[in-house]
Amino acid sequence: MNNFFIKRQTEFTVQLIALSLILFSTHSYLCYHFASEILFFFPLWHIYVFNIVLILTIFTLVNYRDSSAKNELFNLFILGMVLKMGLTLVFLLPWLLSNPQQQGFDLANFFIPYFVFLTFEVYSVTKLLQKKNSIKKVEKQGQ
Fold first, then answer.
1. Nearest CA to 114 among 96, 95, 94, 87?
2. CA–CA distance, 79 with 65 (Å, rounded to integer)
3. What tens digit of pLDDT does each residue of 93-107 get?
4. Is residue 88 in a domain?
5. Does the structure show a pLDDT above 80 at 132?
6. Half-sphere exposure of 87 toward its Cβ, with a 13 Å CA cutoff?
7. Residue 137, domain member (yes or no)
8. What whole-number distance in Å separates Cα of residue 127 and Cα of residue 19?
9. Is 141 a member of any domain?
10. Domain total for the chain?
11. Considering the domain boundaries, does residue 142 fall inside one?
12. I need a labelling partner for 58 at 20 to 30 A (CA). Which of 42, 70, 73, 123 fits?
């Protein structure tokens, strides 16, 4: 394995776990104090595991592809985003088919962490792509 791959993957995983713990703790606290009487369709831990697994998978694929000196990382990332959207629909399908009574609460319960994780993922992959582009520019100037 490439040392750059392992270093970036470790940094990303630690950041993702820290973000997940902070977000999950805050989300649990808010649900406990302000929505304790509401029965949500999905438990919080299901939502967080779903998001963490998808984000870690997409970043790992992009990072691996980058460390193996392959091009077209952006296309891989966009493909991962499209697959993530499809899997999100599959994840939410039981809720959608159950004729939910409290749509707003369940939607917010899922999509607020989803968009926070999505922002983190896009920021991390963009940072990875920018580093790759800046290295290419330096190499071209040196030639």
1. 87
2. 13
3. 988 888 777 778 888
4. yes
5. no
6. 15
7. no
8. 17
9. no
10. 1
11. no
12. 42
